[in-house]
């Protein structure tokens, strides 16, 4: 790990993406939770396309809790891993029952089927709940080691490394890195010249 002052170094990144909404096009916490479960190993764009029809059929947690697994599966049949996701949505809706009961703590969220740390962190961020962790999606797994703020490819280890060097008030750096990864720090041909992090980025400085 380089001797970068990361709390100082991530400020331009946090400023650039401050208050930027997650790419999932949800209308409330119920929709957010469902779409986060559906988007695992699938694309946000695809989930945005199928969501209107899904929520027309199941407008809230109560309606979803009364649906059969088959009825749920029918509406998400072109989503990756739809079999498991149908079961997870059925189980979690029966457990939560109503929209107002949706939990917003990391422990309670990760106890729900189909929701891991990343998903829970996304739900907490978008709901305005205080951060208990850092979002590490596939973009962050690429961007964080490139920058040099973390090493390896294990999302949990990357999250822990970032939590160790950044104060809690900067934990939105994960989502900011995700946006950076989508727009600028692409897998191939990253746009390093226009990146707000290029003055500290190990990948850029090493390739110059």
TrEMBL record:
What cofactor is needed?
[4Fe-4S] cluster
What GO molecular function annotations does the UniProt record carry, in alphabetical order? 4 iron, 4 sulfur cluster binding; DNA binding; DNA N-glycosylase activity; endonuclease activity; metal ion binding
The keyword Iron belongs to this UniProt entry's keyword annotation: yes
Pfam families registered for this protein in UniProt: HHH (PF00633), HhH-GPD (PF00730)
Presence of keyword GTP-binding: no
InterPro entries according to UniProt: DNA_glycosylase (IPR011257), Endonuclease3_FeS-loop_motif (IPR003651), Endouclease-III_FeS-bd_BS (IPR004035), HhH-GPD_domain (IPR003265), HhH_base_excis_C (IPR023170), HhH_motif (IPR000445)
User: Which GO terms of type biological process are on file?
Assistant: base-excision repair, AP site formation
* Keywords from the named record: 4Fe-4S, DNA damage, DNA repair, Endonuclease, Glycosidase, Hydrolase, Iron, Iron-sulfur, Metal-binding, Nuclease
Positions of the HhH-GPD domain: 38-183
Q: Which PANTHER family match?
A: A/G-SPECIFIC ADENINE GLYCOSYLASE/ENDONUCLEASE III, ENDONUCLEASE III
Can you tell me which family this protein belongs to? Belongs to the Nth/MutY family.
* Protein name (record): Endonuclease III
Q: Please report the organism this UniProt entry assigns to the protein.
A: Panacibacter ginsenosidivorans
